[in-house]
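Long-time lurker, finally posting.

We've been working with dTDP-glucose 4,6-dehydratase (Sphaerotilus montanus) and I want a structural starting point before designing mutants. I don't trust myself to interpret raw outputs, so I'm hoping someone here can both generate the structure tokens and explain anything notable. Sequence follows.
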Amino acid sequence: MILITGAAGFIGGNFVHHWFERSEEPIVVLDKLTYAGNPQTIAAHVGAGRCTLVQGDIGDRALVSQLLQTHQPRAVLHFAAESHVDRSIHGPGEFIQTNMVGTFELLEAVRSYWGAMAAEAKAAFRFLHVSTDEVYGSLSETDPAFSETTPYAPNSPYSASKAGSDHLVRAYHHTYGLPTLTTNCSNNYGPYHFPEKLIPLMILNALDGKPLPVYGDGQNIRDWLYVRDHCEAIRQVLAKGRLGEVYNVGGKNEIKNLDVVQVICRKLDALRPKADGTQYEAQITFVTDRPGHDRRYAIDPTKIEREIGWTPAETFESGIDKTVRWYLENTQWIDAVRTGAYRDWVNQNYGARA
Ligand code: NAD
Ligand code: DAU
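Top reply, 14 upvotes:
Generated this for you. Predicted structure of dTDP-glucose 4,6-dehydratase:
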């Protein structure tokens, strides 16, 4: 079996669905169930008995050790993190605690478990760390895309905390020989994405008749990757990745934020036209920029394509179509995540923006 941290969240939850479409190997999920964790996302697998959800903190070394002893996983896949850049600007403490201290405690528990394994199991064991392209900093429009050798230059408390976790994982491989793999991925989108992030926020605000808040001039570029393509990349890196190596994962979809929002608006015009005949684009509002806003991210996926044989299956056109349709059809999941805590966040982040 495999143990996954943070799989009640967006990417981890999609990974659980992706896994059970291809494997019967059971999963144990360790998730703190913060505001971003929703047990409903993986409830079908938990109900069917192939997935066990344990509510707990990756920073609780005793709990992690007990889970490792009880379930004897052949791999640990580490998705759990505080993941939202804007929240890290308003309150960096949780990001340091979970992403750095939590990853350290997790690594210590795993190191001890792995160290005591029998030789064959020890050789087969893997610790796969899921990280981000944001650790490489910001590109200008003409800079080459991030590769695995691009120097780290994180600009937000979020990306700095993820960079810290990456360095710890690297050090545990080099110092203790822990069989690690690290993936650094670009912006994901797709089903079960918490509506604090650009794409789900724009879909839901548009449908609610609310402003579509584009930061700054809307010309910042992200490299969008459909979440199931990311899940497949992780599955393949787990199976075929070279120990201690880093693999960058990208969608070859560099798009300006304003263009992303316009694509969403046009998709909604077609699928859910407004009763008054106006277009969703009229709801776009330019608001005060994110402090320290990175201008451009782009991934050079040559290494994962060459060594692992992975390439993304979705284009942005096909992926955004699936995504918008999913949000139109899954109102129960959406209503459940838009709790009081979510509404407080919206007031905190957008209330003070001009
Ligand atoms: P998310 O915020 O949707 O989910 C995070 C999950 O981790 C939640 O279920 C939450 O409850 C859990 N969690 C938080 N703190 C925890 C703790 N201390 N102990 C146990 N569980 C805890 O995040 P996501 O978008 O699914 O991202 C998953 C991983 O992928 C993160 O490591 C993130 O840095 C990385 N990543 C995300 C993207 C993206 O576009 N979303 C891109 C590249 C990398
Ligand atoms: O690059 C990978 C990263 O992608 C992950 O490591 C992070 O966990 C994930 O949250 C994401 O970070 P971003 O900051 O790029 O994603 P976000 O959806 O918050 O913002 C995408 C872009 O849209 C960014 O340039 C800021 C802009 N934006 C965002 C919001 C929420 C807006 O213009 N308006 C908004 O309301």
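Before you design anything, note these points.
The chain has 14 helices and 13 strands.
The pocket of nicotinamide-adenine-dinucleotide (ligand 1) is lined by residues 5-6, 8-12, 30-34, 36-37, 57-59, 79-83, 98, 102, 130, 132, 162, 185, 187-188, 194 (CB under 6 Å).
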